[in-house]
C-alpha cells in the first residue's frame, strides 16, 4: 500500500469509527502500522532489562490501541481521531508520529495489566541518578517518631532556633515555598521570591546535604531512612517557623498593641 | 520493616513512573508548531465537561482536562495525569479506567472562554465524581489538601523523582493549554441580561463574531 492509499485508509477509519468497519486490505495495513509501533515500544522495555515481553498479535495490538484511545467506547470518546488526522501538515508522516505518541501509553497500560512484575520497585530500590541515589523508604520515612531520642529532638529544635535567622534569602525561599506546598516552577514564584526553579531545586538539595552531614556526625548509629526522617522533620519544622513569621509580617495584628488615635479636632 | 500506607502509594506510583520514563525517553516527533484545527462544531465550554486539547507543538500528545467555572467567562482546567495513580497530595484519583483517572490540582490553568473552546468536547464527569472534585478542590485551594486513599503521598525529600515529574508535567500542560497561567483582559462581548443563552450542545459562535 502506498502513502496515499494508507492516508485514505486512516481517513476511512476516522469516518467509519472502527477498524472492524473498513475494508480488509486497509484494516490489515493499519493493524500492521499500529503493531509495528507497539513492538518497537516493547523492544525498548526489554532492552532496558525490564523483562522479556512478546507483543500480542497484530489485531490485538490494534484492538488495545482503539480501546485505550476510545476510552472504552465512551460516546464522544473518539475525538483523538480528529486530533490524529488534523494536526500539523495532515500527511502520513504526522499521522504515524501521532500514533507513536499515543501508543506509548497503550503499551504502558498493557505492561501494567499483563506483566506487572516488569516494573516492580522495592522499598530498598535506588531511585534517580547522581552521586547519592536514595531509596524509596528514605523518600518517605516512617513518621512515627517513637524511636527518636531526646537528643535528636533537641537537635531539631536547637537548629531551628539557632539557624532560622542566619539562612540565606534563597534558603528561606526554598523552605517557605516547601511549607506552602507549592511547586518551584509555579506561576508567580520567581516574581515573589526572585529565584528561578533551578536555583531553588539546587539549594533545596544543598540544605538537605548540609543538615544530613551534621546529623550523621552527631548520630552515626542512625540507619539511612531514620537519618532522612530526622532531616526532613528539621526542614519541615524550619519551613513552618518561616511560614508563621511571614504570616505575622504580612498581617500586622495590633490587637495588643497601642491604638493609633487620630485627632480630627485639630 | 513493614510499609506504611504512604509508602505503598508511593511504590505504586513509582512503578508506573519508571515505566513512563522508560517509554518517554525518546523524542518521537519533530518540534514544530501545529496550526489549531477548527472547533466550530463543538459545544461551548461548561462546568463538568471533559475536553481534549491539542498540543501547540507536534512533540506532545493531546491533553484531557475537566472544566470548572472561575467566574464570568473564565474557566479553570484540571488536567488529567498520564499516570494511573496520584503522585502527590494535590492529585486526586477520580476514575479507574484510562486515560481519565487522576486530576492534577497543583497544575491547573485559568483561561477565557475563547481559549477553553479551542478543544474537543469528550464527555461530562458524573455528578457524584464532580461533588468529590469540588470538595477536594475547596480543601486544596484553602491550603489543606485532603488525605486519603484517592490522593497521592506526601512529597518531602529534595531528591524525590516527583520533583522532576512535576517539572515535566508543567511543560506538558503549557504545551497544550498555554504558558499563561491566568489570562486577563480578553475582550469578549458582554451579554445583556435578557439575551438568551445558547442551548447546551449548540456550536459556539465563530471567533470572527465574538
Q: Strand-and-helix sequence of chain A, N→C? A: HHHHHEEHHHHHH
Structural class by SSE content of chain A = mainly alpha
Range of strand content of chain A: under 5%
The biggest sheet of chain A, with number of strands, parallel, antiparallel or mixed sense and barrel status, is: 2 strands, antiparallel
Q: Calculate Rg of chain B over CA atoms.
A: 18 Å
Round the mean pLDDT of chain B to the nearest integer and report it: 82
Shape of chain B: globular
Strand order of the largest sheet of chain A: 1-2
**Mean pLDDT score of chain A:** 86
Counting helices, strands and paired strands, the structural category of chain B is alpha+beta
- The number of distinct β-strands of chain B equals 7
List the helices and strands and how they pair.
The complex is a heterodimer of chains A (266) and B (210).
Chain A: H1 3-16, H2 24-47, H3 58-69, H4 79-86, H5 92-114, E1 126-127, E2 134-135, H6 136-139, H7 150-163, H8 169-180, H9 189-193, H10 197-218, H11 224-250
Helix pairs in contact in A: 1-2, 2-3, 2-5, 3-5, 7-11, 8-10, 8-11, 10-11
Chain B: H1 5-24, E1 49-53, E2 63-69, E3 74-79, E4 91-93, E5 102-104, E6 109-112, H2 113-116, E7 120-124, H3 127-141, H4 162-177
Antiparallel strand pairs in B: 1-2, 1-7, 2-3, 3-6, 4-5
Concise summary:
In chain A, 62% of the residues lie in helices and 2% in strands.
Describe this structure in words.
The complex is a heterodimer of chains A (266) and B (210). Chain A is mostly helical and 266 residues long. Chain A has two domains: 125 residues, no CATH class; 129 residues, no CATH class. Chain A contains eleven helices and two strands; from the N terminus they run αααααββαααααα. In chain A, a hairpin with a 6-residue loop joins strand 1 and strand 2. In chain A, helix 2 crosses helix 3 and helix 8 crosses helix 11. Chain A is elongated. About 2% of the residues of chain A have low confidence. Chain B has 210 residues and is of the alpha+beta class. Helix content of chain B is 26%, strand content 16%. Chain B has four helices and seven strands, in the order H-E-E-E-E-E-E-H-E-H-H. In chain B, strands 6-3-2-1-7 form a five-stranded antiparallel β-sheet. A two-stranded antiparallel sheet of chain B has the order 4-5. In chain B, a hairpin with a 4-residue loop joins strand 2 and strand 3. Chains A and B meet through helix 2, helix 4, helix 5, helix 6 and helix 10 of A and helix 1, strand 7 and helix 4 of B.
Amino acid at each position: 500500500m502506498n502513502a496515499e492509499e494508507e492516508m485514505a485508509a486512516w481517513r476511512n477509519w476516522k469516518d467509519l469509527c472502527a477498524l472492524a468497519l473498513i475494508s480488509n486490505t486497509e484494516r490489515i495495513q493499519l493493524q500492521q502500522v499500529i503493531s509495528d509501533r507497539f513492538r518497537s515500544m516493547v523492544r525498548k522495555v526489554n532492552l532496558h532489562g525490564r523483562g522479556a515481553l512478546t507483543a500480542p498479535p497484530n489485531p490485538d495490538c490494534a484492538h488495545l490501541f482503539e480501546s485505550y484511545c476510545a476510552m472504552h467506547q465512551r460516546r464522544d470518546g473518539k475525538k483523538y481521531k480528529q486530533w490524529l488526522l488534523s494536526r500539523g501538515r495532515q500527511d502520513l508522516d504526522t499521522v504515524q508520529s501521532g500514533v507513536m505518541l499515543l501508543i506509548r501509553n497503550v503499551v504502558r497500560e498493557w505492561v501494567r495489566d499483563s506483566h506487572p512484575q516488569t516494573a516492580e520497585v522495592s522499598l530498598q530500590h535506588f531511585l534517580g541518578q547522581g552521586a547519592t541515589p536514595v531509596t524509596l523508604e528514605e523518600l518517605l520515612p516512617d513518621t512515627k517518631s517513637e524511636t527518636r531520642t531526646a537528643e535528636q529532638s533537641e537537635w531539631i529544635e536547637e537548629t531551628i532556633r539557632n539557624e532560622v535567622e542566619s539562612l540565606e534569602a534563597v534558603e528561606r525561599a526554598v523552605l517557605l515555598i516547601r511549607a506552602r506546598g507549592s511547586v518551584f516552577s509555579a506561576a508567580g514564584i520567581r516574581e515573589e521570591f526572585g529565584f528561578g526553579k533551578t536555583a531553588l531545586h539546587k539549594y533545596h538539595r544543598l540544605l538537605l546535604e548540609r543538615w544530613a552531614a551534621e546529623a550523621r556526625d552527631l548520630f552515626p548509629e542512625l540507619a539511612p531512612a531514620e537519618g532522612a526522617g530526622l532531616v526532613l522533620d528539621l526542614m519541615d519544622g524550619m519551613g513552618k517557623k518561616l511560614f508563621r513569621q511571614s504570616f505575622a509580617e504580612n498581617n500586622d495584628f495590633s490587637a495588643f498593641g497601642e491604638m493609633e488615635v487620630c485627632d480630627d479636632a485639630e | 520493616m513493614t510499609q506504611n500506607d504512604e509508602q505503598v502509594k508511593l511504590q505504586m506510583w513509582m512503578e508506573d513512573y519508571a515505566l513512563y520514563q522508560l517509554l518517554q525517553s525518546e523524542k518521537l516527533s519533530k518540534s514544530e508548531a501545529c496550526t489549531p484545527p477548527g472547533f466550530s462544531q463543538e459545544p461551548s465550554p461548561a462546568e463538568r465537561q471533559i475536553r481534549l486539547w491539542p498540543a501547540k507543538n507536534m512533540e506532545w500528545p493531546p491533553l484531557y482536562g475537566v472544566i470548572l467555572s472561575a467566574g464570568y467567562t473564565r474557566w479553570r482546567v484540571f488536567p488529567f495525569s498520564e499516570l494511573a495513580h496520584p503522585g502527590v497530595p494535590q492529585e486526586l484519583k477520580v476514575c479507574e479506567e484510562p486515560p481519565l483517572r487522576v486530576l492534577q490540582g497543583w497544575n491547573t490553568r485559568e483561561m477565557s472562554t475563547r481559549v477553553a473552546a479551542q478543544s474537543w468536547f469528550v464527555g461530562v464527569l458524573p455528578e457524584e465524581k464532580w461533588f468529590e472534585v469540588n470538595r477536594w478542590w475547596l480543601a486544596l485551594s484553602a491550603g489543606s489538601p485532603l488525605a486519603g486513599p484517592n490522593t497521592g503521598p506526601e512529597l518531602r525529600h529534595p531528591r524525590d523523582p516527583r520533583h522532576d515529574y512535576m517539572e515535566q508535567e508543567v511543560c506538558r500542560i503549557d504545551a497544550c493549554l498555554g504558558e499563561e497561567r491566568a489570562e486577563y483582559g480578553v475582550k469578549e462581548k458582554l451579554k445583556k441580561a435578557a439575551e438568551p443563552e445558547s442551548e447546551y450542545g449548540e456550536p459556539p459562535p465563530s471567533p470572527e463574531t465574538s
